[in-house]
Design brief:
Blueprint lengths: L3 H12 L11 E2 L3 H7 L43 E2 L3 H14 L6 H8 L1 E2 L3 H21 L10 H4 L5 H4 L45 H11 L23 E5 L5 E5 L7
Parallel strand pairs: 1-3, 2-5
Antiparallel strand pairs: 4-5
This protein binds a DNA duplex through strand 2 and helix 5.
DNA sequence: ACGCGAATAT
DNA sequence: CATATTCGCG
């Protein structure tokens, strides 16, 4: 047990996004074009329950985005580009896990809690695995001597104490003020062409009490997480607040799934 | 579905 | 080279 134990919560509190920051519910990793093209209207109004994915039974919503603008229909059997886990996205992941507790923190539930469109269970599972390894490695010699900072990503987010111990409880001690979804704040990012002025799915239902509220609060304070990763200025620009696929024209067809910034953390 | 380790791909 | 994804197995 380290000294951080005493004030980890305080730190968390500090990290609480200001009301201005929380608004858009449900981040999206799917480019608007795709969402529309596929006609899949993801509605993450899950209330923490086994959400029966209303999304088509497709194994995974694959995505396409290459420069090909003519024959891009059912990209459905194609592969999804590498997901770039930005620190923000990772934080969202960590928070979700922390909130759920080690016990319930399994890929599926984590994924659901994160409410990031386009994020697959595999993505989360893979990341979770890596994260666990990181935690393990951390406990061995991370303190002060550990110079090996090869895991930038993981190091970017504070590791809740619960992860290290074994206490299977959680999510009960996190009382959050009265932060609940707020309203209509628009994204700072520009106005898209116009055809992409679609909805911003609401991930929260006020109609449900307890559990829903819990998640609502969770989500509410989660909405400020995305950042600008490593894409080159040569690629496309702002579309909307959602994630986007950026392709590096210099290297050919290198495409990377990434998120757009909402604000810095 | 989960979790791992190892291979494989970007 | 770092890291995300796929694969086989329990």
């Amino acid at each position: 047990m380290r000294e951080e134990d005493s004030n980890w919560f305080a730190k968390w509190e500090e990290e609480l996004p200001s009301p201005e920051e929380l608004i858009p519910l449900s981040q999206s990793l799917i480019t608007p074009d795709l969402a529309i093209a596929f006609d899949l209207h993801r509605d993450n109004s899950n209330s923490g329950q086994p959400l029966p994915q209303t999304t088509p039974p497709q194994p995974n919503s694959s995505t396409e985005f290459a420069g090909d603008s003519t024959g891009d229909e059912p990209a459905r059997t194609l592969k999804r580009p590498r997901l770039v886990w930005t620190p923000q996205l990772h934080k969202r992941f960590v928070d979700a896990v922390a909130h759920l507790g080690i016990k319930n923190a399994v890929p599926k539930t984590i994924m659901q809690l994160m409410s990031v469109d386009g994020l697959t269970r595999e993505n989360v599972a893979s990341h979770l695995q890596k994260y666990r390894l990181y935690l393990k490695r951390m406990q061995s010699g991370g303190g002060g001597g550990g110079g090996g900072d090869s895991d930038h990503l993981f190091a970017s987010s504070p590791v809740p104490p619960h992860f290290l111990h074994q206490t299977s409880r959680q999510s009960s001690d996190l009382f959050i003020p009265s932060l609940v979804p707020i309203s209509t704040q628009q994204q700072h990012i520009a106005a898209p062409p116009s055809q992409f002025l679609h909805r911003q799915m609401s991930a929260v239902n006020f109609t449900s009490p307890t559990k829903a509220t819990d998640q609502a609060m969770f989500l509410a304070r989660q909405q400020s997480q995305l950042q600008q990763p490593v894409f080159r200025p040569s690629s496309l620009h702002l579309h909307s607040q959602v994630a986007n696929y950026t392709q590096d024209l210099d290297s050919g067809a290198k495409t990377v799934l990434t998120l757009f910034p909402t604000r810095d953390d």
